[in-house]
Design goal:
The protein has 24 helices and 4 strands. The protein has 575 residues and is mainly alpha-helical.
Length: 575
């Protein structure tokens, strides 16, 4: 009933892979090894060529340009990564068994964790040069964008309708032709939706990406994120207001100049069995289609692609023996499983030795207790956000006029950094002597709750008109209407939004449980504040320990909560 191709999905189905938990020790061993190497490489970094930062509002256009450029570079890298990952995982079973659970683990690693481990490596690659820090910032933004896009494209390629696959087989399309002619166009609407959400996710962590504090080193790159960090240090509310205005201008500009034309262009790829709603329009796309010079520029990229589609065609027909699907030999499969199992066992042994010598088992137990505190906050906040935003999202989705008007507003709210609410939170908590363990928690869901709203709106707006008319004719009202009609209709999209919001809340706990405003620091007991504190002092083994424990908690929620809810949505709600 609900077409889930156009929702930003996490790989809820892939969590059932038997290698998802088995690969976790291997990934953690790599993280611990990187942390150990980072502790050896970490040296004071002198940035002699950094432009001096200023809170002058006239500098904001330049900072906005730098930040937007970093985000688009990361978005381009994320798109390439998503295409490569989806093509390999969707077409090759052996690659899928390893890549999907591996990426499921990587998405559970917090963004600040990637930054704290990789920044020293990038600085060591480019000593005395700002380029290394720029690469670290772009990589941090990449990690906030890539996983969601990769999972979206992978699941879209796996859910291509059978009739389209049969048509591709009849036309004897090669793998390269099938990707460009069928799979990528079919996945384009959902991929663009995820690109928009990934762009917003990059904005949410732009402060941590541009204002880097690792191992007693404070490095600020010119950008909106570092401007916000400097305003927070100086307690300049006026500068924070100007930063909000700059963000709003930037989001409106790239929405009108980039995403709106792409959405209007990609509407022709939408696969629908029934009638479609009003087609999206873009003034820029209409102008570009009437400009002959731009057509010539586009042809420079289209002609080589068409040449490759002609050259890389299938050299045999469907009756050839080469057309038969190749089945891997069972001995090779068992050998691969044995090698992977051996690698996992070695990783477990190495982890045990490393923990015993570097951090101690008492520290591991303490970190798991802190993770439990953060887990309680995440679960409670997601439930409260659901109570508030599910009815609102259903109302907006059932009224297409409002859905179109509020799209840009929702993008801005999803991109709003939680750091801009730190001044208000710190002032209120200090003035009224409130408990940080309780009152810092709302900052965790401040930016991630909008993912829940986005998905509920999408689910409600996709309900078929005949189902709405049937509910009206049957006279459904009150709780019976919600129980029998509205909740089952939006439940799959709600689960998708809850997965995204939950993962974002775990990431946001790093900046929400350890808050600074000028010389005032508030810290809540939790896993996020533990990672933030250890990152600030440069304790790499404990950084890796905190990241590893967060991976365990996030994967546990994926396995025991979200996958089961998604299965219930598939089997019971829409059977």
């Amino acid at each position: 009933m609900i077409d889930k191709r156009f929702f930003p999905r996490q790989v809820v189905q892939a969590t059932g892979n038997r290698w998802d938990w088995a690969l976790l020790p291997l990934v953690l061993a790599v993280l611990f090894a990187l942390a150990w190497g980072g502790s050896q490489m970490a040296r004071p970094y002198q940035v002699g060529d950094v432009l001096p930062l200023s809170l002058d509002p006239w500098m904001l256009p330049y900072y906005l340009l730098r930040t937007t450029l970093r985000m688009f570079i990361a978005l381009g890298a994320s798109l390439v990564f998503a295409c490569v990952f989806a093509a390999l995982a969707a077409k090759y079973r052996t690659a899928e068994r390893v890549m999907v659970p591996l990426l499921d683990i990587l998405q559970s690693i917090p963004i600040l964790g990637f930054l704290s481990i990789t920044v020293t490596g990038f600085i060591a690659l480019f000593p005395g040069n700002l380029f290394g820090v720029e690469c670290a910032a772009i990589f941090a933004i990449f990690t906030s964008q890539a996983w969601n896009m990769a999972f979206s494209l992978y699941q879209s390629m796996r859910t291509v309708p059978a009739e389209l696959r049969e048509a591709a087989a009849v036309f004897q399309l090669s793998g390269w032709q099938r990707f460009w002619r069928l799979e990528l166009p079919f996945a384009m609407p959902g991929l663009l939706w995820n690109m928009m959400m990934s762009m917003s996710g990059g904005w949410f962590f732009v402060v941590a990406s541009e204002a880097i504090s690792v191992s007693h080193q404070d490095i600020k790159l010119p950008g909106v994120g570092s401007y916000i960090a400097l305003a927070i240090e100086a307690r300049d509310l006026g500068a924070i207001g100007w930063a909000i205005v700059g963000m709003l201008v930037g989001i409106v500009l790239y929405d009108q100049l980039f995403f709106r034309p792409l959405i209007a262009w990609a509407d022709k790829f939408r696969f629908e069995e029934g009638g479609s709603e009003a087609q999206p329009t873009s003034w820029l796309l209409s102008w570009m289609r009437r400009t002959s010079q731009l057509k010539r520029v586009v042809a420079l990229f289209v002609v080589p692609l068409e040449w490759s589609l002609t050259r890389l065609r299938r050299r045999h027909d469907g009756t050839s023996i080469r057309a038969r699907p190749s089945v891997p030999h069972p001995a090779l499969t068992r050998a691969g499983d044995a090698l992977l199992a051996a690698a996992v066992m070695l990783a477990v042994i190495w982890l045990v030795r490393f923990i015993h010598s570097e951090v101690g088992w008492h520290e591991v137990g303490h970190v798991f207790v802190l993770g439990t505190y953060t887990l309680v906050r995440v679960v409670v906040l997601i439930l409260l956000a659901a109570v508030v935003w599910v009815p609102v999202g259903v109302w907006i989705g059932m009224n297409p006029r409002w859905a179109g008007r509020l799209q840009a507003v929702a993008q801005f709210l999803a991109a709003f950094p939680a750091n801009l609410m730190f001044p208000l939170a710190v002032v209120l908590i200090v003035r009224w002597h409130l408990d940080p363990n309780l009152w810092l928690a709302p900052l965790m869901v401040l930016g991630t709750q909008w993912y829940l709203l986005f998905n509920v709106i999408a689910g409600a707006s996709s309900v078929p008109s005949e189902l709405r008319y049937a509910a009206q004719n049957l006279g459904l009202s009150g709780w019976l209407r919600w129980k029998r009609y509205l909740l089952p209709a939006v439940f799959p999209s709600f689960v998708t939004g809850a997965i995204t919001a939950s993962g974002g809340s775990w990431n946001a706990s790093i900046v929400a449980e350890y808050v600074t405003w000028g010389d005032t620091t508030l810290q809540a007991d939790g896993l996020g504040s533990y990672i933030a504190h250890m990152t600030a002092i440069g304790d790499f083994p404990r950084i890796a320990l905190g990241i590893g424990v967060m991976c365990v908690f996030v994967m546990g929620m994926n396995h025991f909560v979200w996958r089961r809810l998604y299965a219930m949505a598939e089997n019971r709600m829409h059977s």
